[in-house]
């Protein structure tokens, strides 16, 4: 899983404030890369209601993927 907030149309919106990437990593720049085990762990936390959803929504022409 590759999430680059610079490729997300929700960046700098209220939705961004409730994204799991913002909550878990409080990153300021650069892409977030999760391996398969980390991706499954995040998904399990989300499904259990213990982590916010991934709100990544790529802008058209962006390079990020979910």
Description:
The chain has helices at about 15, 20-25, 35-45; strands at about 1-5, 30-35. The chain is an alpha+beta fold and about 70 residues long. It has a two-stranded antiparallel ribbon with strand order 1-2. The chain starts with a strand and ends in a 19-residue tail after the last helix.
Which terms would index this structure?
66 residues; alpha+beta; two-stranded antiparallel sheet; 3 helices
| Poorly predicted runs of 5 or more residues | none
The value of Rg in angstroms is 11 Å
Q: Report the major sheet.
A: 2 strands, antiparallel
Structural class: alpha+beta
Can you count the helices? 3
Q: In what order do the strands lie side by side in the largest sheet? A: 1-2
In whole angstroms, the N-to-C terminal distance is 5 Å
Assign an overall shape.
globular
- Residues in β-strands, percent: 5-15%
DSSP E strands, number? 2
Could you state the oligomeric state of the chains shown? single chain
């Amino acid at each position: 899983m590759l999430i680059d907030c610079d490729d997300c149309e929700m960046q700098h919106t209220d939705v961004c404030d409730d994204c799991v990437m913002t909550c878990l990593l409080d990153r300021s720049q650069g892409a977030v890369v999760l391996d398969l085990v980390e991706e499954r762990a995040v998904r399990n936390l989300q499904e259990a209601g213990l982590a916010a959803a991934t709100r990544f929504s790529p802008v058209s022409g962006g390079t990020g993927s979910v």
